[in-house]
Amino acid sequence: MSNMRKLNTDILYAVASIVMLILLWQSLSIALNKNYFPPFSNVIERFYENILNGIFVKNAISSLTRILVAMLISLASGFAVGILITWFRIGYISNFIKVLVFLSYPIPHITLLPILFYFFYVEWSKIVLISIIIFYPLTLSIIEWSSRFPRDLGDLIYVMGGGRFDLFRYVILPSSLPGILTGVRISFNTAYAVVFIVESLVGSDGLGYLIYNYWHILDYEDMYSAIIMLSILGVSTYLILLYLERKLLKWLY
Amino acid sequence: MIVVDQIYFSYDKRRYIFKGLKTVFEAHKTSIILGPNGVGKTTLLKLIAGVLSPIRGEIRIFGKNPVEMRGRIGYIPQLNGLYPWMSVRENIMLPLKLRRVDPMKIISSLKDVVSRLGIEDLLDKYPKQLSGGEIQKVQLARVLIAGNDILLLDEPLSMIDIDYRREIISILKEISSRNNSTTVIVTHNVEDVLELGDKIYVMRGKPAEILEIDKNSVSRDSLYKFYKGI
Questions:
Q1: What is the CATH number of the domain that holds B139?
Q2: A186: region left, alpha or beta (phi > 0 left; psi from -120 to 50 alpha)
Q3: Which residues in B lie closer than 8 A to residue A166 (C-beta atoms)?
Q4: Same domain? A115 vs A4
Q5: Are residues A27 and A100 in the same domain?
Q6: Residue A206 pLDDT more than 50?
Q7: Helix, strand, coil shares, percent, chain A, to 5
């Protein structure tokens, strides 16, 4: 009951802050009267039109597909790297991979885009770039969390007759799941930012392309409405993942 | 029979916890080791469980080394040994799952154990939601379901309120007698010793030594004296 009440209060606060933000936007834009800052009422009108005529849906699907494919690639490779490091905890392989990951982490990966064009087709170069960028927060959180599993509970698996695979299945994986899910949530956030950059630099579809294109032709109302669309996607993904975390990690909450 | 044969052990290879420690725990008896905190009781249990290895010397459990005995040993660690991400049900079933027992058999064994300990209402809870006494009961259920005949229990009566104490003691006695098991319990509480042990050992000193004491000729006062090294 108290949980329900808390949820209701949270929703109330969220709605109140959004309404306040909209009011602030509307009054500021009227007061400033600049064409690069159109009133919210005009923007939302354009937003509906773009939803109804299918432009936003079509382009949102393009952006989302890129993000999801990139996420799958990064998750798979992040898992492989994280597990290799945990598996060969002490040894050359583990140290070698660790050094490689940590050394290549500070490189501004976005600058790799022109190189990627030569190696992949245009579409894949965008996806690969997104996956390279989100690979790091994901992999680092997998490495960090999987190496922090409770040793005593790990030893107990062996005493009860389990093997290495059981250690992974019953201890390492579940104990690192909270960190992995947080990593996924943060990575999605980054992915939305990167998708905007790659789509505006090259391409002919996606919300990033739309935003850049509207900006280029000085169509500010459409530009703002596309930014709102991308923001709605970002916030929805965040909330869905938060919900999933609560469902999957009942033992933690 | 558990034979501890001249073992040397150190965590940092400088300060030795055991230097030639030697003792025998008899088969099918409950041996209880009394000693102050930090003397090395938990370390000895971990060595017998095969979680740690001695630097020198060896431990033989019915003639085998501890690693070969994996799956036959029921070990309850000092701190909560339940997996926080598993429900009570999953925690209890784990030893049988690790041995790849048929799922139908696991479920019927689970029913038996749970009804015997009266913990039906805990099955869907997570360890975080349990009291100290409940945690200990679930750990015992996990040992019971595994049917282990070698039991290593680290402070099984600590963190437990008085209401549970009697219950846990009777469960412990039942498990020991039913499986005719060889049990080693460590504790720092003199009262536990008198209630649970067939055989009493006192561990003290640095590096630690272990002395067997005749239960029939020992009084509560003399145990306290031994304990304090007077």
A1: 3.40.50.300
A2: alpha
A3: 98
A4: no
A5: no
A6: yes
A7: 85, 0, 15
Strand duo B2-9 + B56-61: pairing: antiparallel
State pLDDT tens for residues B9-25.
999 888 889 998 899 99
| Chain B residue numbers touching A171 (CB-CB < 8 A) | 83
Chain A and chain B share a number of CB contacts under 8 A equal to 57
| Residue range A45-91, pLDDT digits in tens | 999 999 999 999 999 999 999 999 999 999 999 988 887 777 666 66
B171 vs B137: CA distance, rounded Å: 9
CB atoms within 10 A of CB A77: 15
Q: Using CA atoms, how far apart are residues A186 and A139, in angstroms rounded to an integer?
A: 12
Cβ contact, residue pair A251, B84, below 8 Å: yes
Cis-peptide into B207, omega within 30 deg: yes
CATH of the domain at A79: 1.10.3720.10
Range of the domain at A9: 1-33
Tell me whether 0.85 is exceeded by the ipTM: yes
AA letter at B214: D
Residue of chain B with shortest Cα separation from A155: B51
pTM of the model as a whole: 0.82
